[in-house]
Design brief:
Beta-Lactamase, single chain, 318 residues, 3 domains, Arc Repressor Mutant, subunit A, alpha+beta
Length: 318
């Protein structure tokens, strides 16, 4: 393990702030928030503050749907990074880790450094760090070594990504942290990709759990709108949309309260008259019955003759 000399780190932070680097560097901008907004001293030695056990239980209860969905993704991510001395944390919107994966042999080290459930890692308490800075900037970040604001945290390497809830709001942060000094930039890049992918899986699984009876429609993937998906009910109304889908389609608000027709959003042609809607029902019933008119009619509770008459009715011109 290697930690930057506290006095040298403090001088580097002060020089960066005095030079106006905050306007050019995201890390320096976070240092500026840490010093000027939160009044932190980079040489502060105090360990991270921790919630009480009762407070942590309350946080876990609020995050229960996401925690339930996140388990498999946390396990897979730890399998990928745990062997090289990393721990996996899922924190809430206040920067408090609620769920953790780590190797027993590393637990004492991570607990000593506060990378543990119940510790408070927002920028107001710990300055520039993976969890807190990802929350403020609502983007994936890697805060490596001397990027941290507090000299005591420069022993750490933290890669974090925000996790969004089914309404498209930041609901937590996924973090992989290490106290090893030999992590290369290339390896940190691989960890960053793994963290972002795991965060998107957690979002997708949380979204599916939030709409268990809906049909999930995946939209074309893009770098700008990852994980874009819609929840569509039995009436073909969109009742939910992921953050990616909201950005792609310009959606906002509570879609469960104010649903939108799926066809309007997806550009698909749908029946616009009662006659067209009836014909669509008949056509779907016939397809389900494998072309058997009698079976299709029975499934709809009408006679074969009625089925024939309705499906053969001429279309009306608009």
């Amino acid at each position: 393990m290697h930690r930057t000399d506290p006095a040298a780190h403090t001088r580097a932070v002060e020089a960066a702030l005095a030079s106006g680097a905050a306007a050019r560097s995201p890390v320096a901008a976070s240092w500026s928030r840490s010093a000027r907004l939160h009044g932190l001293d980079p040489d502060r030695r105090r360990k991270p503050e921790r919630m009480t056990a009762a407070e942590l239980v309350q946080v876990a209860q609020r995050m229960e749907p996401m925690l339930r969905a996140a388990g498999p993704s946390l396990d897979r991510l730890f399998q990928a990074v745990g062997g090289v001395g990393c721990s996996v944390l899922l924190a809430d919107t206040n920067g408090v880790p609620v769920e953790r994966r780590g190797a027993a042999s590393d637990d004492a080290t991570f607990e000593e450094w506060g990378l543990w459930t119940g510790a408070i890692w927002d920028e107001a308490h710990e300055g520039t760090n993976g969890i807190g800075t990802a929350l403020v900037e609502a983007r994936a970040v890697t805060i490596h070594g001397a990027d941290h604001f507090l000299a005591r945290n420069t022993i750490l390497s933290c890669t974090s990504a925000p996790v969004y809830d089914p309404e498209g709001r930041v609901a937590g942060v996924l973090d992989v942290s290490s106290c090893r000094a030999d992590l290369t930039e290339g390896f940190l890049g691989l960890i960053s990709n793994a963290v972002v992918e795991a965060a998107r899986r957690i979002e997708a699984d949380t979204f599916r759990l939030a709409f268990p009876k809906a049909r999930i429609v995946l939209l074309p993937q893009s770098d700008r709108h990852p994980g874009a998906a819609l929840a569509v009910d039995g009436d073909d109304l969109v009742i939910g949309a992921t953050r990616g889908a909201r950005a792609m389609l310009g959606l906002s608000g509570d879609l469960a309260r104010s649903p939108r027709p799926a066809a309007d959003l997806l550009g698909a042609g749908t029946p616009e008259t009662l006659e067209d809607a009836e014909r669509a029902v008949l056509t779907r019933a016939l397809a389900r019955a494998g072309g058997n008119v009698s079976a299709a009619a029975r499934g709809l509770g009408i006679s074969r003759a009625t089925f024939h008459r309705k499906i053969a009715a001429p279309r009306r011109e608009n």
